[in-house]
Amino acid sequence: MYLGVIVNPQARRNRAAPADRSAELRRIVGPWGEVHETASLEDLHKTIAELHPRVTHLVGDGGDGALHWLINEIQDCIPDPERWPTFVPTNGGSVNAVARKARVRGQADAIVRALAAAAAKDQPPPEGRLDTLQLDGETEDGAAFHRLCFGLAAGGVGNRFYDKYYANPDHNRTAVARTIAHTFGDYVTSKVSPGHSDRTNWASHLFAPTQARVVIDGEEVPTRTHRLLHAGAIDLRIAGPFRLFPKAAAPGALHFQAGETSPSRIIAQLPAALTNGGIRGSRVRDVNGREMIIEAEGEPLSPIIDGERFTGIVKLVAHAGPKIRVPQVTTKA
């Protein structure tokens, strides 16, 4: 075992961490690996290109977003997924759903400490494999677009939710509940007492549909407006009980959601949707599938991919990506 630990000093949690955080991680890793700070995507690209030949375990000091960038940078360096290192999420980000799915428990320092101890004994922890979602498409200037990810909110409610969620100073289950409560309250007020809401942009923004042509496994979704436009390779839990993509719980299953339904139906189904991840409607497709094609109509898409926003996308094709190896690390700290 040889560890590569990637620290982003600009990450929200790391900005609040002690100034010598990287030094502390180096002390924990000892001779069993390296710790590198990457303050930009250019830094990350150069670091991964230099580091990848010698690491067996690549540790992202962050959450889902950090893991996303590590996987995509490794793919640029090593086209063959079977030669990729084992990826280690560390519960250090705003959203840590992938770590929960991978059964990686504990705080970042404790996880790195456990891996260093395993390396010292040359006894790697048991591993599992996680499915990924591959996105291929095109940008508005004609360039090719490609990402590997776990979850996609291409438009609709899931996409717009992130705007409000990230506006909160803290990214936790309280922020999720606060965003939902504000949206619900604003919607109810707009119906009961129009013109008296002091948060008129909450519900109107969240429920604004996305214009797109969507085809799932060769069958076109019977609407060009979508309040649901999501895809997932694994089932995810965010902020405790809130569940996304439950139909992707089984290995190899992709979960696609697309279509149109009214804000009132979304509100009515919200409690169930937050715990089982599903919304019903006559023009909603909430299914397992092999491929989903999304073609923007009018405005380009600005998809949220593993919590990261990308802009200027006019076409996306979502299908199964390669599996990645993840260790099952449980710590007491």
Automatic annotation (TrEMBL):
Signal peptide span: none
DAGKc domain location: 4-118
Any Pfam family hit: DAGK_cat
InterPro entries: ATP-NAD_kinase_N (IPR017438), Diacylglycerol_kinase_cat_dom (IPR001206), NAD/diacylglycerol_kinase_sf (IPR016064)
One Gene Ontology molecular-function label: kinase activity
Protein name: Retinol dehydrogenase
